Amino acid sequence: MExxxxxxxxxxxxxxxxxxxxxxxxxxxxxxxxxEQARVExxxxxxxxxxxxxxxxVIINASCTFLKPMNYPGTVEVRTFVGHPGxxxxxxHVEMLIDGDLYAEGAAKIVWMDTMSGKxxxxxxxxxxxxxxx
Length: 134
What we know:
- The protein is α+β, with helices and mostly antiparallel strands.
- The chain contains two helices and six strands.
- Strands 1, 2, 3, 4, 5 and 6 form a six-stranded antiparallel β-sheet that branches.
- The mean pLDDT is 93.
């Protein structure tokens, strides 16, 4: 069953020379860095500081499907989507495009957590409002 996804953030970032590996394409680990940067930008744009201490978002799993190799030079557009939030978590989906062509798709489950106790907490009301807005 297809779950409804909501586009919540778009960012663009340059592919750096150092992102490539010995095979001459962007290393698989860097795709996760692109997703991480997009996620941090989105979360901080909601007014949630991504810093140690207190309560905040963490990911409990992440995946990436590599469809085409990326190369330097270029600019990758990272589109972040979210599904319907649960009590303490929300599923995110990512598309990575260059010049409108899809190069990779990713996902991560984001959980709000009390960093001191390591236990999940309810998604803050202001964040939930953004996630649930049409």
